[in-house]
Design brief:
globular, alpha/beta, 34% helix, 20 strands, 508 residues, 6-stranded parallel sheet, 5-stranded parallel sheet
Length: 508
């Protein structure tokens, strides 16, 4: 196809464009803050569209990118506060879900690109400010995720035995900041507040047979703690009903089929729901049908009451879902130090579907437990005072990833839209932000006529502050060491949980 909007792939270049293509032009310098899925997917999309290294190139207006004359030397640099990359893929995905971590292979290819560089061990907002990055790059994309958790805001949540699910997940996944958590697993009953996939992950790890966990990359110290765990019963509690649960059918099915643990669902919670879901979207309908079936009978077997005794003998552990209960207070032991239970307000639902609200009825209930895990959501924090931040919603105010009122500053992932969705959601969201950057390059909102030094400028700042970045090849040495340690233990890897040990390993 000819001039006016087509893409050429390899081959010759139309004569009218030869002079334009051969003339030198400043190259865009873009940096991404955060090396989780949002960061890597943003970088991946920018690299793919900006540097068509296979000989392909696009001519506006049909493609929102430039011919190579405009971006032949373009670069994307990724900054990460930890020495190791991949964010929640490494530290959030459950150890028994290795298939979800396969995206690391694509991220590795991105990081190895000659147009991309990874700089770990650099805390943006402390080691280098966002303003300094804006001086060094034409565009800065903030993709640092949600580094905190929402609090319950009830009395007793600071008692011993109460943890956020985020910290618990970080502990068994080797997140450095949670390596010293040492959760007390000496009780028989655990209560998880929340009905999302993270809540199911935590329940599954608490109840999984050790023989299954030993084959994963779960950390050695958490495996040892779980081997001594006395927890044999886990309740997952939510403020709303079965039609509002946030977990997905794959995770629920996995929980139902967990060896050595039987589901305990109250049939009364599902009365009349068959009619209510007739016109529901298919995923919600299938999920609810599976809960109903599990509550009434074992799939393909007799009603649960008939086989209860046999199941109890075969499955020494159990888990269940409790609905329409809102936590009011974590109850202390006699000495006032530890959790012994949670006082719940029973609720009724106003409205229907996802918009239904839980309204307290005035009735209360106490549930005994020695371990309370709050899984009510993650929360993003303000990275730098210079960056606009909506503290109520926990996001950076933006339009299609463009930070409001700050040209050249962008955001993607959870800090852009809130801590919801799975990796594919983050991928699409990050591509959306990358397209905004590309569009702003195309129409001249980002002025690439003024060259920027990129990492060259940042490196001198970091050196002056005594900060030594970790390269991607440094990470690959850490990776090789972890895999070797894991092999010796019969695991895929044994994660190093101490950043100082990581740095010593690579000679920092």
């Amino acid at each position: 196809m000819g001039p006016g909007g087509a893409c050429w792939r390899g081959g010759g270049v139309p004569g009218g464009f030869k002079r334009w293509l051969s003339s030198p032009a400043p190259a865009p310098r873009v940096c991404v803050v955060g090396s989780g899925p949002a960061g890597f997917y943003t970088a991946q999309h920018l690299l793919k569209r900006l540097f068509l290294a296979t000989g392909s190139w696009c001519n506006p207006p049909s493609c929102p990118v430039f011919p190579p004359a405009h971006h032949g030397g373009a670069r994307v640099d990724i900054y990460e506060k930890l020495p190791v990359p991949f964010g929640l893929v490494r530290f959030g995905v459950a150890p028994d879900h290795p298939e979800v971590k396969n995206v690391i292979n694509a991220f590795t290819q991105t990081a190895r690109s000659e147009r991309c560089a990874y700089y770990g061990n650099v805390t943006v907002g402390k080691d280098v400010t966002v303003a300094e990055l804006q001086q060094a790059y034409h565009a800065v994309v903030l993709s640092y995720g949600a580094e905190d958790n929402r609090v319950l805001g009830i009395p007793g949540e600071n008692l011993s035995g109460v943890y956020s699910a985020r910290a618990f997940v970080g502990w068994y996944n080797g997140l450095p900041e949670n390596r010293d958590l040492k959760p007390d697993l000496s009780c028989e009953t655990a209560l998880i507040l929340g009905h999302g996939n993270v809540a199911l992950d935590v329940a599954r790890i608490l109840l999984s047979p050790l023989r299954l966990l030993r084959k994963t990359d779960i950390t050695d110290c958490s495996l040892a703690a779980l081997a001594c765990s006395k927890v044999k019963r886990v309740w997952l509690v939510g403020r709303r009903g079965p039609l509002q649960v946030a977990f997905t059918i794959k995770e629920l099915r996995e929980m139902i089929n967990l060896p050595g643990a039987r589901p305990v669902l109250n049939p009364a919670d599902f009365t009349g729901l068959e009619n209510a879901i007739k016109d529901a979207p298919r995923p919600r309908k299938r999920l609810t049908e599976l809960m109903i079936k599990t509550a009434l009978e074992k799939p393909g077997e007799k009603p649960v009451e008939v086989q209860a005794a046999a199941a109890q003998a075969a499955a020494p552990r159990e888990w269940g879902l409790k609905f329409q209960r809102s936590p009011q207070e974590v109850l202390p032991t006699a000495d006032g130090r530890r959790a012994r239970g949670v006082r719940m307000a029973l609720t009724r639902l106003e409205g229907s579907g996802d918009s239904a609200k839980a309204i307290p009825t005035g009735d209360m209930e106490e549930l005994e437990c020695g371990l309370v895990l709050s899984s009510i959501g993650y929360r993003s924090l303000q990275l730098d005072p210079a960056v606009p931040f909506d503290t109520q919603r926990g996001i950076i105010p933006n339009s299609s990833g463009r930070v409001e009122g700050v040209p050249g500053l962008y955001c993607s992932g959870w800090v852009k839209r809130g801590p919801t969705g799975v990796i594919i959601t983050t991928m699409n969201d990050s591509f959306d932000t990358a397209q905004s950057v590309l569009e702003d390059l195309r129409v001249g909102v980002l002025d690439v006529s003024a060259s920027r030094e990129g990492f060259g400028a940042v490196e001198s700042i970091l050196r002056s502050r005594g900060v030594r970045p970790v390269s991607f090849s440094d990470w690959e040495k850490i990776d090789a060491a972890e895999v070797a340690r894991g092999k010796a233990a019969g695991k895929p890897r044994e994660k190093i949980v101490d950043p100082q040990e990581m740095l010593r390993l690579i000679g920092h």
